[in-house]
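The material for today's practical consists of a large collection of protein records. Backbone structure tokens are a discrete shorthand for how the chain folds in space. An example says more than a description, so a record of this kind follows:
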Amino acid sequence: MHRPENPIDTGGLLVNVPLFNGLDHREVARIAAGTQPVAVARGEVIYREGETPTGLHLIVYGQVKLALHSLQGSEKVLEILEAGETFGEAELFLDDHYTLTAQALKESLLLHISRATLLDELDRDPLLVRKMITGLCQRVHQVISDVEACSLYSGCRRVVDYLLRSQPDGSRALTVTLPATKYVIASRLSLTQETFSRILNELSVRGLIAVEARRIHIPDVARLRAYAA
């Protein structure tokens, strides 16, 4: 990780992030003063399990995965984060070590907001506190949904639910672009890569989807959903 070569308008980036929009220019300026831009190469580790947090990370562009690793070297991907999302909040507030490893899946630009800066601003601004609590609650709900899916749903149902997660209301056909490799998506769904590929092939053979590299074409959303029910 390193500082970007070109100057970054940190304040201008912060105001376009949902967590910080609505703050006045003085609040944004205070946060920007405690923020450092960080350029991360694809595949680079941002932090590892067990390290001590120094602040909050916000993704300006790129993609980051959060994962657990076993002593045997296996990996379980818990989240795939995109531009505008933050990570590292829980450990920051608990003053605890990181419980996950964060790694860039694409070349990324992050903003590192120091712990002291963030906590000082939270003490001043109830709106920012509510936004931060909302974000953490959404993460908790996502974890509950993941546990429910892994405990109660078949692998096929998990894959179909994932493909239809952003389905526009009333749409009949849909094209989904997988945001990461099949290995990463499979780990996110608690499947092996082989099982994930087998399910995609099964759905393709039945005419429910058409696979074109990372693009998944779904000609009939209702039929696909009914098949996995």
Observations:
- The chain has a mean pLDDT of 89.
- The longest helix spans residues 126-152.
- Residues 93 and 119 are 9 Å apart (CA to CA).
